[in-house]
Amino acid sequence: MSDQAKVSSIEAIEEFRSRVIVYVNQAHSRLDEVGDEVRRTRSWLQTEQRMHWEGEIRRRKRVLDQAEAELMNSRLSSMKDSNTLQMLAVTRARLSLQEAEGKLLNVKRWFRVYESQVSPLLKKLESLRSVLDREMPKALAYLLQIENALEAYAESGPVAAAVHEAPVSPHPSPES
Predict the structure, then answer these.
(1) What are the boundaries of each domain within the chain?
(2) Which domain of life is it from (predicted)?
């Protein structure tokens, strides 16, 4: 029975190692994309949408103030026909303002919900990033060591086996 192991495909380890490298690079890329998307969404909710609806509230308050002033003017001028139109304009402006205030409340609520649901998921992604940054380089180095050790073994194996299998003569050679 032979004392030498059969090393048939060192290339398979090399290919596996190269695929792990590709995986690590792609995983880093995807994690960066997810992080960017989370930041964009957070900014959109916290800043853009909040500012938009705060601006809408200010604008709609001005419209309501103007409609109320026109209603007051029409009451003072005692014009009954336009009074109804002015009351309708005030009602519409109030409803519009209430809608904007509701939208702002929704945005604030969405932001709180977003933060509470996304934060635990981000922690999981960060632990994956930690594995990719700390453990995968060690694994790749280990695979490279295995590959080098197997190559060295495969190269020295037949020579070492030939030395062990060479017949040893009981008589010393004349060169000795």
Answers:
(1) 10-153
(2) Bacteria
Taking the model in full, what pTM does it have? 0.65
Residue 173, pLDDT > 80, answer no
Yes or no: say if 24 and 132 are a contact pair by the CB < 8 Å rule.
yes
CA distance 90 to 87: 5
Angle of helix 10-43 relative to helix 136-165, nearest 10 degrees? 180
Amino acid at 108: K
Other Cβ atoms within 10 Å of 53 Cβ, number: 21
- The answer to whether 93 touches 67, Cβ cutoff 8 Å, is yes
What distance in Å separates the CA atoms of residue 12 and residue 138, rounded to the nearest whole number? Answer: 19
Helix intervals (H) in the chain: 10-43, 50-76, 80-130, 136-165
In this structure, what DSSP letter does residue 133 have? I
pLDDT band at 16 (very low <50, low <70, confident <90, very high): very high
pLDDT at 5: 61
Residues 119-139 have pLDDT tens digits of 999 999 999 999 999 999 999
Q: Which fold has domain 10-153?
A: Helix Hairpins (1.10.287)
Give the CA count within 13 Å in the CB-facing half-sphere of 97: 16
Q: How far apart are CA 122 and CA 34, in angstroms?
A: 9
